[in-house]
C-alpha cells in the first residue's frame, strides 16, 4: 500500500520503496496524509510446491532485470513515453505558475485510466489527488478526479465534482470540463477502475445505459478533434487472484458470493457472474479490458503499464511509474514530487484481515448478523489475534486450507499464458519467465494461497463465543 505525505517536518528523505507490498498483498490506500494496513499474514504457511530455478538461473534473473531497467529508463534529454505518442517531451517539462501554461508543440490528449480493479488504482488516484496542484503548475496535465463512494474520495471543487456513471448530467459536466482543458492546450487525466466494469458489462442490457454514458464521453472528445489515450495496468494473475478475492469476492454484500478463495478459484465462472464481471478463465482481466476498449470503443492506442517492469527511478512507487511511462514531459514534476512528498507505510497490522473476515462472515451467516457488522467484527478480532493463537496453542496449529498442487499448477500455467498473450515481447526477454516463476513461488511459500479452515476452527466453543462477542 502506498500513500503520500508532504515533506515539511520530515528530517531527511524517507522512501519505503517496497513494491512487494503491492505484489504480495491487497491495497487499502488512504490520503488522510498517511494510513496503511498490512496485507501480510501473521502465519506464513509453507507449501511444498517448488518451481525454484538453479543458481545460474537466479543469476540470469539479476542480469535480465538490470537490462530491463536500462532499456526502459528515461533519458535526461528526452523524457518520452514508450507509447510513442509524438509529444514534444521538453515542451511539457517546463515550470509555469499559470494554470493554463503550455507550449504549442504539445498535443492535447484526454488520458483515461480504466484500472482494472486491484491493480493499484487507489495508489495512482491518491498520488494525483495529493499533488494535483503541483501537476498543474509544472506540466500541461490536469487531474480531473475519480469516481467512487468512499470517504476518501476527493475532487478539486474547481475542476470536477460530478459522478460520471450515474446520470447524463454528470457526463455532460465532465465532458465540458475535459473540453475546456483540451481547448486551452492542456491534457486532462481521469481515473476510475469502475470504468473497467462498465466495459466488462457493456453487452448486459441492464447495464447498457452506463456504458452508453462512457461512450458519449469518449465521443464528445473525439468529435472536438482531440485524442483519447486509454491507460490500463497489468498485474500478474497469480498475484491478482488473492487480492481480488479478499476485497471483491469474500466481502461481497451478497452472502452467496462470499466463498473461500479455493472454492472461488474452482467456480470462478459462477462467482464472476455473481459479481457481474465475466470470467478470467480464458483471459487476463487486463487483456479483456484491452479487447473491450478496441471492440466497443474503437480505441487501440492503449498504454499498458506493466507493474513488473519498474525502473530504479520509480522507487517502488506505482504512481511514479504511471506518470513516467504515460505522461511525457513530466520529469520536472517527478523531481519536485520527490522533493515535496515522501512515500511511507503507516501503522501496519500484523494480522491477515482476510482470514478474520472469513471467520466473522461464517458466524454472521449462521446468526443473522449484517454484512457491515461482520466487517467491524473482523477488524475488532484482528486486534486480538493473540487470543485466537492462544486458543489453538500457537499459530502453526490454526487449521488451514491451501490450494492443492493441481490448483497451483493450473494457476501458474494460466498466469504465464496470459502474460505471454498480453505482453509477448516482454515475456520473450531473457529472465522474464524465470522471474515470474520465482515470484509465484514466493507467494506459495508466503501462504498467499492458504486460508483459515473456519468451519473446523468454529468447532471450538471458546472461539465461537469470542467471534460472537466481537459483533
Task: Please tell me about this protein's structure.
- This protein has 471 residues and is an alpha/beta fold.
- It has a domain at 83-236 and 276-343: Rossmann fold (3-Layer(aba) Sandwich), CATH 3.40.50.
- Helix content is 47%, strand content 9%.
- It contains 20 helices and nine strands.
- The strands form three sheets. A five-stranded parallel beta sheet has the order 3-4-2-5-6, sandwiched between helices. Strands 1-7 form a two-stranded antiparallel sheet. A two-stranded antiparallel ribbon has the order 8-9.
- Helix 3 (121-138) crosses helix 11 and helix 3 crosses helix 12 (331-340).
- The two termini are 28 Å apart.
- Residues 8-105, 147-168 and 345-351 have low confidence and may be disordered.
Summary keywords:
471 residues, alpha/beta, Rossmann fold, two-stranded antiparallel ribbon, globular, transmembrane helix, membrane
Short structural summary:
The protein is of the alpha/beta class and 471 residues long.
Amino acid at each position: 500500500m502506498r500513500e503520500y505525505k508532504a515533506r515539511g517536518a520530515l528530517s531527511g528523505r524517507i522512501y519505503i520503496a517496497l513494491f512487494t507490498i503491492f505484489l504480495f498483498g491487497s491495497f487499502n490506500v488512504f490520503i488522510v496524509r498517511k494510513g496503511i494496513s498490512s496485507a501480510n499474514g501473521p502465519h506464513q504457511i509453507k507449501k511444498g510446491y517448488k518451481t525454484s530455478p538453479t543458481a545460474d538461473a537466479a543469476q540470469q534473473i539479476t542480469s535480465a532485470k538490470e537490462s530491463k531497467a536500462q532499456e526502459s529508463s528515461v533519458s535526461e534529454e528526452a523524457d518520452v513515453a514508450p507509447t510513442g505518442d509524438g509529444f514534444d517531451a521538453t515542451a511539457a517539462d517546463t515550470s509555469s505558475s499559470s494554470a493554463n501554461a503550455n507550449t504549442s508543440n504539445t498535443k492535447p490528449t484526454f488520458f483515461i485510466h480504466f484500472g482494472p480493479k486491484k491493480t493499484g488504482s487507489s495508489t495512482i488516484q491518491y498520488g494525483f489527488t495529493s499533488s494535483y496542484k503541483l501537476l498543474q503548475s509544472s506540466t500541461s496535465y490536469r487531474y480531473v478526479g475519480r469516481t467512487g463512494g468512499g470517504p476518501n474520495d476527493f475532487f478539486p471543487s474547481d475542476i470536477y465534482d460530478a459522478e460520471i456513471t450515474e446520470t447524463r448530467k454528470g457526463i455532460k459536466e465532465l465532458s465540458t470540463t475535459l473540453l475546456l482543458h483540451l481547448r486551452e492546450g492542456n491534457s486532462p487525466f481521469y481515473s476510475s477502475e469502475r470504468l473497467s466494469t462498465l466495459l466488462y458489462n457493456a453487452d448486459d442490457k441492464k447495464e447498457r445505459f452506463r456504458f452508453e454514458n462512457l461512450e458519449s464521453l469518449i465521443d464528445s472528445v473525439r468529435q472536438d478533434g482531440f485524442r483519447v489515450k486509454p491507460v490500463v495496468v497489468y498485474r500478474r494473475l497469480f498475484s491478482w487472484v488473492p487480492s481480488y478475492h479478499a476485497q471483491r469476492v469474500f466481502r461481497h454484500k451478497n452472502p452467496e458470493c462470499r466463498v473461500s478463495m479455493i472454492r472461488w478459484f474452482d467456480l470462478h465462472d459462477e462467482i464472476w457472474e455473481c459479481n457481474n464481471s465475466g470470467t478470467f478463465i480464458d483471459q487476463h482481466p487486463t487483456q479483456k479490458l484491452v479487447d473491450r476498449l478496441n471492440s466497443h470503443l474503437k480505441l487501440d492506442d492503449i498504454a499498458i503499464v506493466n507493474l513488473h517492469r519498474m525502473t530504479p527511478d520509480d522507487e517502488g512507487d506505482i504512481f511514479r511509474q504511471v506518470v513516467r511511462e504515460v505522461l511525457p514531459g513530466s520529469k520536472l514534476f517527478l523531481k519536485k514530487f520527490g522533493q515535496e512528498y515522501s512515500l511511507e507505510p503507516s501503522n501496519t497490522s500484523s494480522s491477515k484481515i482476510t482470514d478474520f473476515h472469513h471467520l466473522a462472515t461464517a458466524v454472521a451467516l449462521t446468526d443473522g448478523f449484517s454484512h457491515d457488522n461482520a466487517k467491524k467484527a473482523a477488524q475488532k478480532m484482528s486486534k486480538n489475534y493473540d487470543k485466537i493463537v492462544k486458543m489453538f496453542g500457537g499459530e502453526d496449529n490454526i487449521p488451514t486450507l491451501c490450494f492443492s498442487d493441481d490448483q497451483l499448477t493450473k494457476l501458474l500455467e494460466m498466469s504465464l499464458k496470459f502474460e505471454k498473450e498480453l505482453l509477448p515481447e516482454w515475456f520473450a526477454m531473457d529472465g522474464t519467465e524465470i522471474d515470474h516463476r520465482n515470484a509465484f513461488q514466493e507467494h506459495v511459500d508466503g501462504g498467499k494461497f492458504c486460508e483459515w479452515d473456519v468451519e473446523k476452527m468454529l468447532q471450538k466453543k471458546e472461539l465461537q463465543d469470542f467471534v460472537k462477542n466481537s459483533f
